[in-house]
């Protein structure tokens, strides 16, 4: 694989890790939060998805409408997922990933970077998403543990894509 293929494959594996995490969650988990007052799991998922939509507005505005925001405002300062249906959340994330990859591949084909951000190489957007997702997955796992949810992921399906 060349470097571009490695990043695209890493992003694909990242999507499978996200799918595995979502597949292990229940709708009840979405309302769990860090006892110290941090975000709920649902809010972390909102940020993972809405990150893609937000950056699409800058890097590929013509693609923006293809990506749905997950969040809804619950009051002036609080947001949460507009659905508790994990399958719907997964579909929104899958669509966001697909549109992100399409936007990157379009720039790769044109041998161009994005304008305003990720100008050095379009794959930097996917790299940013990988790091961003890993941060939120770690936060989600921490919230689960802090709320007493047993999680034995050390040898679970979230690791499977990285063993290939």
TrEMBL record:
Superkingdom, natural source: Bacteria
Record has Iron-sulfur as a keyword: no
List of residues binding a divalent metal cation: 132, 136
MF GO annotations: metal ion binding
SUPFAM superfamilies: DinB/YfiT-like putative metalloenzymes
InterPro entries: DinB, DinB/YfiT-like
Xref: Gene3D superfamilies: dinb family like domain
UniProt KW keywords: Metal-binding
Family statement drawn from the similarity comment of this UniProt entry: Belongs to the DinB family.
Protein name from the UniProt record: Damage-inducible protein DinB
Organism: Deinococcus cellulosilyticus (strain DSM 18568 / NBRC 106333 / KACC 11606 / 5516J-15)
């Amino acid at each position: 694989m060349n470097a571009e293929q490695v990043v695209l494959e890493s992003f694909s594996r990242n999507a499978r890790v996200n799918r595995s995490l979502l597949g292990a969650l229940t709708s009840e988990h979405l309302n769990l939060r860090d006892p110290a007052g941090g975000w709920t799991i649902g809010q972390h998922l909102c940020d993972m998805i809405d990150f893609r939509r937000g950056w699409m507005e800058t890097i590929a505005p013509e693609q923006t409408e293809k990506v749905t925001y997950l969040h809804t405002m619950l009051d002036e300062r609080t947001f949460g997922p507009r659905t508790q249906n994990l399958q719907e959340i997964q579909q929104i994330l899958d669509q966001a990933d697909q549109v992100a990859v399409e936007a990157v591949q379009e720039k790769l084909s044109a041998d161009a970077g994005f304008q305003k951000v990720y100008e050095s190489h379009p794959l930097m957007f996917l790299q940013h998403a990988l790091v961003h997702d890993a941060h939120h997955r770690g936060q989600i796992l921490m919230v689960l543990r802090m709320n007493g949810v047993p999680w034995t992921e050390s040898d679970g399906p979230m690791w499977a894509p990285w063993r290939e």
